[in-house]
């Protein structure tokens, strides 16, 4: 009976392997909040420390930074260039602040005047005139390639923006 327990018992080595696999393989889901991802990564770090894996703070930070999506590339470059020495908790706080200041928004596009002439109306996806009230809608291609209508439609003057 003792032999059966030894055969079917889960070894500490296997638990350690599984925990490190999850930690090194975790990636933040695009569009989710970095705070919840940071909490998940910190809980995995605590589990690894309980298992006495023996990784240092720099390795933990490297793995956390590698788990982030492309949106955080500028933050990562800045962090590495400035050779910041932070704890994991400070790193997560910095990431939350970075996310809050950038709002995960697409870059703004500058829009100039629109003409209501037929030559401009026929151009490829630049300016389109709506029938009726003389509103002009500017469309741009987003990063995903789909056209997006811009806000700030001026009525009757042929301009896009807040002035009328």
Automatic annotation (TrEMBL):
Pfam families for the chain: Retrotran_gag_2
Q: Looking at the record's lineage, which domain of life comes first? A: Eukaryota
What is the name listed in the Swiss-Prot or TrEMBL entry for this protein? Answer: Uncharacterized protein
């Amino acid at each position: 009976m003792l032999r059966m327990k030894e055969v079917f018992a889960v070894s500490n080595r296997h638990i350690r392997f599984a925990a490190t696999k999850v930690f090194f393989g975790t990636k933040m889901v695009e569009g989710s909040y970095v705070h919840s991802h940071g909490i998940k990564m910190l809980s995995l770090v605590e589990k690894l420390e309980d298992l006495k894996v023996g990784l240092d703070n720099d390795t933990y930070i490297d793995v956390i930074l590698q788990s982030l999506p492309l949106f955080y590339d500028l933050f990562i470059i800045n962090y590495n260039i400035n050779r910041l020495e932070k704890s994991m908790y400070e790193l997560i706080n910095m990431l939350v602040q970075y996310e809050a200041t950038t709002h995960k928004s697409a870059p703004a596009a500058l829009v100039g005047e629109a003409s209501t002439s037929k030559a401009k109306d026929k151009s490829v996806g630049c300016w389109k005139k709506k029938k009726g009230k003389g509103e002009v809608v500017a469309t741009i291609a987003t990063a995903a390639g789909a056209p997006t209508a811009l806000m700030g439609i001026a009525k009757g003057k042929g301009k896009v923006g807040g002035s009328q």
